[in-house]
């Protein structure tokens, strides 16, 4: 029976772990990030992978940092045949990469060599891509630079958010790994060296990337909003207060007012001037310190005094 160590953290990784368990692989341990404080009350919360591992009765290891840690020595000492990672969140030290006889695999949510890094799904949506996918690859010392084993692509639909694609690609990754792993273990698979001339990166989302630049086109703003939905969520400011923009769409009309200015207010949306003489309709938002709400709820309450000409910055 093939023994393995699984390394993953978010909900994206859970179906992959569950598949490995159901397929009968001998999972020696599950490695995931430490519990973190969540929410306003800072409640210490386990990762989705830890919750699933405990439900399955599996051993859990949670290193704060792998390199030079006792947890690293513990994982290597398990002498797994193969290590499988899926959105683990840390780079693997070289001694770990070299320890399993069948190497270390990664289930990466992009069509490599495009979008190496920690936010490939977010970035693909923000960039307005029309397709994405999953790559099963060997891990290397350089970030997401290992040889490709197999890939599968899916379309990005016009209303797909990052959250929707996370769910879709998690299942694609699960199924692709299920098909590929027996071939890998039998050494009947391909190894395709990545074309370095085609490499692009998707670094973890910064606070600067979350802020809406109203001088961009309405389509770019729409892609930003859905690319940051449901986390970390795009934001802007109104009357010196941060406002999260949960949902919206490109407006039908054109306008030449100053960018960011409110050009129309209806019963259920706020129309804002963007670049290129276009408009963007805010449909769902969250004022600072308030709950997420529809534009209609906002205009009946907190935003009841909003006027034409008020400006989002």
Q: Would you kindly provide a written description of the structure presented here, covering whatever features stand out?
A:
This protein is an alpha/beta fold and 313 residues long. It folds into 2 domains: 3-198, 3-Layer(aba) Sandwich (Rossmann fold); 207-300, Methionyl-tRNA Fmet Formyltransferase, Chain A, domain 2 (Roll), CATH 3.10.25. It contains 9 helices and 15 strands. The strands form 3 sheets. It has a 7-stranded mixed beta sheet. Strands 10, 11, 12, 13, 14 and 15 form a 6-stranded antiparallel beta sheet that branches. Strand 3 and strand 4 form a beta hairpin. Helix 1 (14-22) runs parallel beside helix 6. 40% of the residues are buried. The model has no long low-confidence stretch (mean pLDDT 96).
Characteristic key phrases:
313 residues, alpha/beta, Rossmann fold, Methionyl-tRNA Fmet Formyltransferase, Chain A, domain 2, 2 domains, 6-stranded antiparallel sheet, 27% strand
């Amino acid at each position: 029976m093939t023994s393995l160590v699984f390394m993953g953290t978010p909900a994206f990784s859970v179906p992959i772990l569950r598949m490995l368990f159901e397929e009968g692989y001998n999972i020696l341990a599950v490695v995931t990030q430490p519990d973190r404080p969540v929410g306003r009350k800072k409640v210490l919360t386990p990762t989705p992978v830890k919750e699933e591992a405990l439900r399955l009765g599996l051993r859990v290891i949670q290193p704060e940092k792998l390199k030079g840690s006792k947890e690293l020595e513990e994982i290597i000492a398990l002498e797994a045949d193969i290590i499988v990672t899926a959105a683990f969140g840390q780079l693997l030290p070289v001694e770990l990469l070299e320890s399993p006889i069948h190497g270390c695999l990664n289930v990466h949510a992009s069509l490599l060599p495009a979008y190496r890094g920690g936010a490939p799904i977010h970035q693909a949506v923000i960039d307005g891509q029309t397709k994405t996918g999953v790559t099963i690859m060997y891990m290397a010392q350089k970030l997401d630079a290992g040889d490709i084993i197999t890939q599968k692509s899916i379309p990005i639909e016009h209303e797909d958010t990052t959250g929707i694609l996370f769910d879709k690609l998690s299942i694609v990754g699960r199924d692709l790994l299920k098909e590929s792993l027996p071939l890998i273990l039998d050494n009947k698979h391909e190894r395709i060296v990545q074309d370095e001339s085609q490499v692009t990166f998707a670094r973890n989302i910064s606070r600067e990337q979350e802020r809406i630049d109203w001088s961009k086109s309405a389509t770019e703003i729409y892609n930003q909003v859905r690319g940051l939905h449901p986390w970390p969520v795009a934001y802007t400011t109104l009357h010196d207060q941060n406002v999260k923009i949960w949902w919206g769409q490109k407006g039908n009309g054109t306008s030449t007012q100053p960018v960011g200015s409110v050009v129309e207010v209806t019963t259920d949306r706020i129309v804002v001037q963007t670049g290129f003489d276009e408009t963007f309709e805010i449909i769902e938002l969250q004022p600072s310190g308030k709950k997420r709400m529809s534009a209609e709820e906002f205009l009946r309450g907190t935003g009841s005094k909003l006027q034409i000409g008020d400006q989002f910055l």
